[in-house]
Amino acid sequence: MASAANARLAAQDSTAIGFIGDLDSGATRVSLPITNQAEIPQISPGSTAIDLPGERYRPSDQQTFARVVPSAAVLQRAATGLAQRLGVPSERVRTAAPNAVALRGCRPGAPRSYLISPYREPSRLGPRGRDFDRDYRRRFGSPRPSSAYGFEAMSLLLSSVRRAGGDGGDRGAVSDQLLSTRDRRSVIGEYSIRSSGDTTLDLVTAYSIRGCRLAVSGEIRAPGA
After folding, report:
1. Which residues make Cβ contacts (< 8 Å) with residue 142, sequence separation at least 6?
2. Closest alpha carbon to 214 in 132, 84, 94, 130
3. CA distance 29 to 213
4. Do residues 35 and 63 make contact, with C-beta atoms less than 8 angstroms apart?
C-alpha cells in the first residue's frame, strides 16, 4: 500500500522532519502508526475520522498528529444544524468531500439533498486564500477545494520548524511547536491546533444536490459541542 510505503520511507530517513498526508482517513490510519513510532510529526490536509488522534495510532505514546480540516464530529454537528435549520430529515444531509463519489446513486427527480464538506470553496476564502487561489490558477489551473488545505499543511509544518529555532532538526521539538500553534492566520482562515491535534476551524461548506447537480449553498459554522 502506497501510504505505508511512503510512511516507512520517511521513518527510515534520519533527515525527515515531517510527513504531509494522507488526504483520506483510511490511508492515514495506515501511515500514522508508522510515522508516530518514528516520532515524525504528521499533518493531514483532509483526514476527518474521529479516531485518528487516539491512542490506537500512537505506539510512541506521544501525540505527533495534527490536521487542518475539521473532524467528522464537527461536520456532523454542522449537518445536524443545517437539517434543523432547513426543516428536512437528517438523512437528506450527508458529510463528504464534493466529488464524484458524493454524487454516486443520484437520481433525476429525487428530493433536494445536501452535502457538508470539510473544505471551504476557494472562491470563499479570505484575502490570503484569494491570493492563493489567484496564484494557483496562474500556475496549475482551477484548484480543488482541498488544494488550499494541502498548501496550508506544508506551511504549518515549515512554521513549526521555524518556531523550534535551533531545535528545528529535532522531531520532538517540531511536534511540540505544531501542537502549540495558536491563532495562526492562513489561507484557510485563522485557527489554532488543540493538544489533541484537531484544528479549531469550524466553518464548512454546504452544497445542495438536485438530481445529479451539485451547487454551493453557502457556508455554515458548526454549533459548539
Report:
1. none
2. 94
3. 32
4. no
Distance CA 106, CA 92 (A): 12
Buried b (16+ CB within 10 A) or exposed e, 68-106: bbbbbebbbbbbebbbeeeeeeeebbbbbbbeeebeeee
pLDDT for position 74:
97
- Phi then psi for residue 44, to 5 deg, are -100, 135
**Distance in Å from the first CA to the final CA of the chain:** 36
pTM of the complete model:
0.94
Summary mean pLDDT of the chain: 94
Q: Which residue has the cell 504549518?
A: 156
Residues in the chain: 225
